[in-house]
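Hi Y.,

Following your request, here is the sequence exactly as I used it, all 561 residues.
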Amino acid sequence: MSNSPARPDELCSAAIRALSGTPNVRLRGDVLHDGERTLPVTAPHLRPGDNADVGSRRGAADGMASRLRHSDLALHQRLRPADALPGLVFDLLEQFRAEAMADEQYPGVRANLRHRFLRWTREFADAGLTETDTGLLLYTVAQVGRATVLGNPVPAEAEEIIEATRFALADRIGHALRGLRSDRADQRRYARSALAVATVIGELSARAEESDAHSGRATTGMARLFGLADTADVDDAGAASAQASSEPAGTAQEYRVFTTAYDVEESVSTAVRPAVRAEYRQRLDDRLASTNVALAPLVRELQRALAGTGTSSDWERGHEAGAVDPAQLTRLVTATGARDVFRAETELPDVSCVVTLLVDCSGSMRRHAESVAMLADVLARALERAGASCEILGFTTRGWHGGRAVADWRRAGKAAHPGRLTELRHLVVKDADTSYRRARRDIAALLKPDLYREGVAGEALRWAQRRVLARPERHRVVLFVSDGIPIDTATAQANGSRYLDDHLSDVVLRTERAGDPALAGIGANADLGRHFRHARELDVAGEVGNALLRQVLRTLAETRA
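Below is the corresponding structure, written out as tokens. Let me know if you'd prefer a different format.
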């Protein structure tokens, strides 16, 4: 068993289970799961982010537990407005109702809930989101709604910001706010007032967005302003991160693929010309020569990390007693003082293991290409010397913005929620049966910038699993290397910003439940703990040396714990 300390997600998950009485829920990042199902427990302040303080993490966990305990999620989803912004407001108001029902015998829970909301209040204002008409409207509703439902005063730091907007809203939603307060013990009656508030805010927000646009002030979309959409870097081709669709937040869709007609699986030896691979190999060799990687200790640590219960025999030479080493007979005769001419039988760990390195080749990973190529190169060498097999795979797309798949969808009438809308490109960099010596130039092809486009991670992980499960080794591991959430612009715009991320979560959960292959997430300056039980963040911006490689080895060892 591993002696490593429990991750924050694990501690928060335990707190949610205890407070809600729901035995199988588990938190990954900011998303709550019940087994393989994503639970629609959403509100902006329930997503504190990776760098949040302990109080915010605990407050978000207590908020989720309150929602599970005091809210009928199925009823909420049936009553929830279909339009994006009213739906988000409806979610927020129901969350406040659930928090108001928190048991008074747990003052710590109430304190945690208040701490998290206050921290979100500051984060929202500090980010400048109240400087647009849209952002100010949403901020005001959040402050007034919580104060009304819980019977708490509006935070002093928010009073001055919302004063004028609060006054303007009084005639429009005052009656509905009073209904929220009086009906908070009855979810169905409460929902009528919540829907009234959400409808008014939806109407006003449309005018606010027009005002923001005409005045030239930046607006980042309803979901972004409300903290409910993940964002990604804009790639070099100008593909911006997808905006949230009108799909209700937290409602899981069945994963679909619009077309596989343009998907390809190919070796990098055919995707990258030999002369280019030779050039990149020289560059990679030069970079590796400048590092201080000691391979022999890594090989020994790998053998210990990956060894099964069996052993095999071999001879260890250089002993001063034991059986005479036939290879040292000449020295025994000619160098009469030689003492280290004996050998002893020793047991070696039986390493029957295959490790697949699955590399995210999306645009944002381009800046980490050199570090990832170095990691893949050294790991492939070390695994081979340790007696294990190694496969290196990459996943990307054939172009930007969906390519021919999107064109086909448009010609077919642009059906709602079409599923994955892009041309997949799965790359075999090194298969498990190819030696490191033969694969050296192919590994260096990971340096080629135009391989890095967009990424559909869930399908790539399933592809890697199918390949590794066909292997004869007893222990099989897939190391998923990425810098964050999967992103494909066309798919996200047509299905919602969390569509690919939710699918990756589903694939990981199913695989971890099955137990084979073992999975681990290697984050390139990113925390992948929201998806993977075994996850480690690596600072790949620094030197790829023994210290960093040992972190990967520890992750491999944890998959056997």
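The CA atoms of residues 21 and 69 lie 7 Å apart.

Thanks again,
Q.
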